[in-house]
Amino acid sequence: MGSTAAAAASALPASAGSGENLVLILDFGSQYTHLITRRVRQLGVLSLCVSGTAPLASLEGLRPRAIVLSGGPHSVHAPGAPSFPEGFLDFAADAGAHVLGVCYGMQLLVQSFGGAVEPGERQEYGKMDVEVTAGSSALYGGEGEVGKRQTVWMSHGDEVVRLPQGFEVVARSVQGAVAAIENREKRFYGLQYHPEVHF
């Protein structure tokens, strides 16, 4: 196991390695990643935060229940933009984990599965209302939520313009940008905003 992940994992109960109540957070450089870790722990759930570009071998032995891909200051189109390690998607599937991409993390998922991300016509920063567009959603609590709004924290210049096969849009910003996506069959989810930021 890589030194950073090994040191962090050594502080976890032995049961965490088998996937008991563990959320793994892959950090892609967001200023809010520490808030994700804090929010998870406030729920009484074990969390382990490691670099998003850590080699897959550094995660060996971990079987998290959920994985969060953090935001970051990068564009998925920029040369050298960070990405999760080769084999990560298979690792998540083998672990049976639910994967949530946040902001940049969602764009990485979309790009990795063959969707398209492009510079947004109207970049979104700060408080923004989003509206649920799907009649049934794992992210927003089941049936009958169409039209429900909430105010969230946006911080992105790029946006999703084409979904990968198997994904659906379940919420949009009031400006029309994709705000949330799901592929419930494969257990992959994405939020363009930062749910960890409270205001």
UniProtKB/TrEMBL annotation:
Domain named Glutamine amidotransferase: residues: 24-198
CDD domains: GATase1_GMP_Synthase
Keywords: ATP-binding, Glutamine amidotransferase, GMP biosynthesis, Ligase, Nucleotide-binding, Purine biosynthesis
GO molecular function: ATP binding; GMP synthase activity
GO cellular component, one term: cytosol
Protein name: Glutamine amidotransferase domain-containing protein
Provenance organism: Eleusine coracana subsp. coracana
